[in-house]
Amino acid sequence: MEIRTVGVVGAGQMGNGIAHVFALAGYEVTLTDVSAEALEKARTLIERNLDRQQSKGAISAEDKEAALARISTTETLTDLGPCDLIIEAATEREAVKTAIFEELVPHLAEHTILTSNTSSISITRLASRTDRPEKFMGFHFMNPVPVMQLVELIRGIATDQPSFDACLAVVEKLGKTAATAEDFPAFIVNRILMPMINEAIYTLYEGVGSVRAIDTSLKLGANHPMGPLELADFIGLDTCLAIMNVLHDGLADTKYRPCPLLTKYVEAGWLGRKTGRGFYDYRGETPVPTR
Ligand code: NAD
Question: Considering the chain, what is the average pLDDT of its residues?
């Protein structure tokens, strides 16, 4: 089955990047969000990021204009009904995702493949709440989407081969590389990455090191391009906490216990870069550690 039209649900950090890469690869994209402001911001950001690619010589001015012309936005979820492929990239809360699928499913074409960009929630469980578990998959992009090469493809227990093959062909057309993961909590990348970030937060919580010492240690001592706390702020602390909770609940092992300090930051609304404050304060010229 050839996919030409793509609906993206959620225009946050991930949704705007997903719309960007699909439009640049020639797909017609409809982007939706409950927030008109998020849609506005996404458009501005996509344009700015395309500009950056153009100034680096990665794309031409015509590529940029054509990509922008392929993206339409709507606040009405059901406008996505005719799309060949749906990628849900709304907030990492199961109730939010399930409500989206329940509203959208009666409007979908029979052939439509439904996917979620969830970082951790069970694909099989999400699929079971739809009318098409065999056409349901995890389509997990990394942040920032236009830059990161990997896409994790996750099969639910019922996912059929034609749907998997169609998604794999899409990843190839996007010029990205797929890794296939089985449907267990947080899949591959976050199963490994998030406990490391959580451990870095424990290291801060227990006073072993400061924010700067921890990030410098992993950058210069383990050759990581970003420190774990910097990375947590980049991902979003609400998303990090949600993933740790999925690991803790799904695998029932205390080694996945979310650090209380992570919970406290989320309770404060200090969610990282997207809210201007997290382990660093981003409101000034340069980021300043908050502890
Ligand atoms: P975000 O907070 O930046 O954006 C979420 C967006 O979803 C918001 O704009 C919000 O208005 C919108 N939304 C909420 N409810 C909605 C609804 N009912 N219908 C339509 N839109 C709705 O979050 P994000 O970082 O873009 O994460 C989105 C998804 O991508 C999550 O499932 C997350 O786990 C996953 N993900 C995130 C990262 C990351 O690094 N941030 C990486 C890979 C995957």
Answer: 97
Superfamily (CATH H level) for 5-182: NAD(P)-binding Rossmann-like Domain (3.40.50.720)
Which CATH architecture fits 191-289? Orthogonal Bundle (1.10)
Ligand 1 midpoint to CA 15 (Å): 7
Beta strands across the sheet bearing 136-141: 71-74, 28-32, 5-9, 85-88, 113-116, 136-141, 150-155, 177-182
- Domain limits, the chain: 5-182, 191-289
Kindly report the pTM of this predicted structure: 0.91
Q: What is the pLDDT of residues 208-221, one digit of tens each?
A: 999 999 999 999 99
Residue 91 Cα to ligand 1 middle (Å): 4
Alpha-carbon gap, residue 66 to 15, rounded angstroms: 19
